[in-house]
Amino acid sequence: MRIAMIGTGYVGLVSGACFSDFGHDVVCVDKDQSKIDSLKQGIMPIYEPGLDRLVASNVKGGRLSFTTDLQEGVAGAEAIFIAVGTPSRRGDGHADLSYVFGAAREIAEALTGPAVIVTKSTVPVGTGDEVERILREVRPDARAWVVSNPEFLREGAAIEDFKRPDRIVVGIDDEEAAEVMREVYRPLYLNKAPLLFTGRRTAELTKYAANAFLATKITFINEIADLCEIVGADVQDVSRGIGLDNRIGPKFLHAGPGYGGSCFPKDTLALLKTAEDYQTPLRIVESVVTVNEARKRAMGRKVIQALGGDARGAAVALLGLTFKPNTDDMRDAPSLSIVQALQDAGANVRGYDPEGIEQARPLMPDVEFFESPYKAAEGADAVVLVTEWDVLRALDLTRLARTMKQPIFVDLRNVYPPAEVEEAGLRLHSVGRAQ
Ligand code: UGA
């Protein structure tokens, strides 16, 4: 089957590579010439485990190619995916759909035969209707269908998530188009992955509801963590205690410095805007957004408190800067708020991250970056574990303690057992435990 993927961002590139690995003939299209040139040379624009190998083997197999020419990509394609960005619109938080609609128009103009046009980008309810309107306006005679097929993959585990999805949601009520989508996902479908066919608006909303629910779960446990610290309970045990209840489930109950990334912050805001437009407020999601923003700032205050309430002139090393491990993505990372709070309080901030330093550098002026966590910790008054990269889960704490000026260790991900930290000679400040 011939597939065109418009947009080689996170979702587009991973999906395109995975579809080609299913045996489809995939052309990835992007307007950015330098990105396409790099991809042709096997250079990935993002850090995602396994992606370079997956791309290389499918390019070699002749199933995956890259072009800036949308017309060439769309010609003969039976399924055309729109996977362009939908950033928050400056000023009002609405999703900016100009790239989606622009792509829809160009696709409509380039159609050569029957095709499904599939929005994979996260788009507000009703976007499919507008894409359909554009399609009919440009090509009233075209045999084409507009489908919503939201993506649920996580950065850092994107290939695994794509190939072993909990479910695939497809919003279309036309049987012929549904058949094309079954063919697109044939290997997963044969493997009994649930393929859920819904109305188009339902599929669009399902994506936002899923992300908002996950953000709510995290925010809930973060607030419980605050209470644990006050009443002398342990949030990890509370998480386990509630997570073993099948109705609740254990995932997304890890207390931490607040959620970040390119999805939860943007999607919760866009969902609130939709709710506002339809005069149906989502009060729980409103609270989640407010509480999470406040939490990111509160984490900076937590470090200052660990320093005895005064951070002036203190050297603080932040370990792990990206919003989560296995990505170089710094978008809305909690580390950004923490750095800001510490610098405002007069601290000298240092940073270490296995993959994110290049992305972090322009966003964190006046932070000194180091190539190793131990180098960053040398002479520091406090070390703060912000993001739980594997290398940071296996720190030699005694070695760390030996070179620090003060033995203050703030573990915002509760990676290390308190006894181990103390044995190494460090004073632990963690999340959701009596301090
Ligand atoms: C999220 C969703 O998990 C994906 O299903 C979805 O497809 C994606 O957004 C998207 O809309 O594209 P992602 O943002 O890559 O994926 O990362 P997550 O693993 O969900 O983590 C998001 C944030 O929540 C991170 O900052 C992470 O540290 C935080 N988190 C996650 C916690 O603080 N505690 C947890 O228990 C889980």
Structural summary, described in words:
The chain is α/β, with parallel strands linked by helices and 435 residues long. The protein has 2 domains: 2-198, Rossmann fold; 199-435, NAD(P)-binding Rossmann-like Domain (Rossmann fold, 3-Layer(aba) Sandwich). The protein has helices at 10-21, 33-40, 51-60, 70-74, 98-110, 127-138, 158-163, 175-184, 186-190, 200-231, 235-243, 264-277, 283-306, 334-344, 357-363, 373-377, 390-393, 397-403, 418-423, and strands spanning 2-6, 25-29, 64-67, 79-82, 115-119, 144-148, 168-171, 195-198, 315-319, 348-352, 368-369, 382-385, 408-411, 427-430. The strands form 3 sheets. Strands 3-2-1-4-5-6 form a 6-stranded parallel β-sheet, sandwiched between helices. Strand 13 (408-411), helix 19 (418-423) and strand 14 form a beta-alpha-beta unit. Helix 1 (10-21) crosses helix 3 and helix 5 runs parallel beside helix 6. The protein is elongated. The N and C termini lie far apart (58 Å). The mean pLDDT is 96.
